[in-house]
Amino acid sequence: MSPSTAHRLLSMLVFRGFAIQDENRNYLPGPEIGVAPTTIVGVDRLRTIARPALEELRDSVGETAYLLVLNGQDVRFVLTVESSDYSKTDDRHGFVISAAQSVGGRAILSTLPTSKVREISQVALEHNYISWSALSGALRLARQRGYAYGVDEVEKGVATISVPLTTGKDMPSSALSLSCPSHRADALESQRVLSSLFAAKTKIDQACH
User: Fold this and answer.
1) Which of 39, 59, 109, 203 maximizes the CB count within 10 A of its CB?
2) CB 44 within 8 A of CB 54
């Protein structure tokens, strides 16, 4: 099996929660096979604060909403509020993915200094999972817009938009995301959805301080 094929398979196992990576990037059993997820300080309080805003956002736009937190070089999904639409995107609670390779991760990275971005993205850059030029360009666009956006990136057939949150000092760096089937991708950048997304961000930010 080629290294690139092995990486794709392992990345999907991590994304689906069947594997996690520790701080040394070693692969370990994930929460979907009975191993408790990594404990991140402040997540429980952040989840409690964010849930009402995510529920209101879900009801407003009709798409599934997610809360993600930065965990080393990855982002972890810590809360899902699912849409009732039959074609909704699924619950991703516990899923982990490289911050540099995900929309929610790039939303968080867009708030950090370049030196910190390079540190967090080191493995992804060293293994050419993403180039520095592509990552820095995506972060520059996210800073200009105030959000990150992508289609068919981590999961085929899925579009995602994400905004970084401004949380308290005892909480992890985090982001709020909306996902939908890619055939509805354009709607994520509509004024209606953007207004609802930023309103949810404001409510969470204010409640965290």
Assistant:
1) 109
2) no
Query: What is the pLDDT at residue 128?
Result: 83
- Kindly list the structural domains of the chain, giving each domain's residue range(s) and its CATH number in brackets, ordered by start: 40-207 (3.30.450.40)
CB atoms within 10 A of CB 40: 17
Q: Are the C-beta atoms of 121 and 100 separated by less than 8 Å?
A: yes
> Using an 8 Å Cβ cutoff, are 90 and 71 in contact?
no
Dig out the tokens for 187 from the structure: 């709607």
Strand partners for 74: 71, 98
- DSSP letters, 158-207, are EEEEEEE----TTS--EEEEEEEEGGGGGGGGSHHHHHHHHHHHHHHHHH
Most confident of 3-12, 77-86, 195-204: 195-204
pLDDT digits (tens, 9 = 90+) for 149-173: 999 887 889 999 999 999 988 899 9
